[in-house]
Each structure stands twice: as structure tokens, then as C-alpha cells.
Design brief:
Layout (H helix, E strand, L loop, with lengths): L19 H10 L10 H20 L4 H21 L4 H27 L5 H30 L9 H30 L11 H6 L5 H7 L6 H37 L1
Helix pairs in contact: 1-2, 2-4, 3-4, 3-5, 4-8, 5-6, 6-9
GO molecular function: phosphotransferase activity, for other substituted phosphate groups
GO biological process, one term: phospholipid biosynthetic process
InterPro entries: CDP-OH_P_trans, CDP-OH_PTrfase_TM_dom, CDP_ALCOHOL_P_TRANSF_CS
Amino acid sequence: MLTEPAVDVRRPVAPVPETYRQTVARLQAAQKPVGRGAPAYSVHVNRRLGRFIAAAAFRFGLTPNQVTALSAALTFAAILLLALVPPTFWLGLAVTVLLAAGYAFDSADGQVARLRGGGSAAGEWLDHVIDAVKTSALHGAVLLLAYRFLVPADQRAWLLVPIGFMIVAAVSFAVFLLNDLLRAARARTTTATAIRTGSTPLRSLLGLPTDYGLLIYVFLLLGAPGAFVIAYTLLLAAHTGYLVLALPKWFRDMKAIEPAAS
């Protein structure tokens, strides 16, 4: 007697959900290369914090732009506190925690985009615009803090320090973006290698004066205004010195890729 073939009526086995640890590992494997001279805190601390945040944000279904918005909210909350509240230890702690958290979320938004299969031009534009605003606004808040609470009337010349820091930080940010933009453009239009990646501990340490992470922790000194003024001034001097030394080198780099483009 003929019999009907046995039919497997079991439902297809659903894939096992990815764990948080597996998401972190997948993100680490897809991490973009470290830029040459990338400063130490940004590479070894902030990027790792951003990875943990990105994995959690991805699992909660947040988009890269939502993570960028959270970063902006944390950062600008710190900037408002800095501009409006008299300096104390607790203000310095609150500002440092908010800025550090905002910086970690700033690292996370691009990593969320990679987990979701790639970012968008609009998302990258939004991220850079917020970075540009906070770069100047943070030092503007220091200027207001100093004018209202820190600097006596007979020492108002020190107010030139946050103004100078605002200028140096804005120029540095613009030049970093321009360097990456021009190198990437030359790499797309020529067969020459226009982008060099990879960093070393020495390069990371040399880039420390430009590290936004270092600036963040200077605000822990707000409970001791004299120490804060000295540390902030020294950081401006280091940041300015690095920029002055780096500009001729970056100009030579641009000239070096020009023959390949032509």
C-alpha cells in the first residue's frame, strides 16, 4: 500500500538573538582604522566607551541621529551650567561628567551607523555641525564664567585666554576636517595612496594637547579657581603650539599629494 511521505510540520527554528556582548564584539571587528596621531584619550578611552553605548543604542533601536541628539543634549547642558552657575567643586564635577558622557555619545553615533549598515551624508553633516557649535560655545561659556565669577576687574586681560582658545579650537577643527576631506578626495581620483592610517603611542601623546578629552577633565579644577585658570591657560599654550608646529607639516602633506592628482 502506498503511503504519503512524512511531512515535517515543525516551524522553522528562529535565529538565536544576538547578545549584547556579541554586538560589542561585532562592532569592534568593524571598527574603522585609527587616524595618524589620534590623541590618546579619544582613541583608548572614548572610542571604547562609545562602543559600549553604541551596542546598547543599537539594541534599543536608536538611530544614529538620535544618538547625536543625546550627545548634543548632554554637552550643551554642561555648557549652560558653565555659563550660568558660580564655580564650585560640584559644578566642575557635573560639567565634567556631562561633557564626558556627551563625548562618548558623540563617538557612538557613527558606530551605530556602522551596525545599521552605514551612515548617511545628512547624519555626518549633523554630527559635524554640532561639533563645530560646541567647539566655540564651550570656550564662550568659560569666557562668561570668568567674566562673572573668576576674574577680578583689574585682571580682565585674562579674558583674552578663552577668546584665544575659541579661535584656536575653531581653526583646529576646521583644518582637521579639511585635511581628511582633501585626502579622501585625492584618494578617489588617483591611484596613489593619499590616506595614511595607524597610530603609535608616541603620536597619541604628541596629539594630547588637541584632545577634547583632556580639556574635559580640566573642569574638575573649578573648585579651585586659581588652579583652573593656570591649567586652562597652559592647555591653550600647548594647543596653540601644536597647531603652529603642525600647520607647515599639513601644508607639505597637501603639496605632496598634488602631483599625483595632476
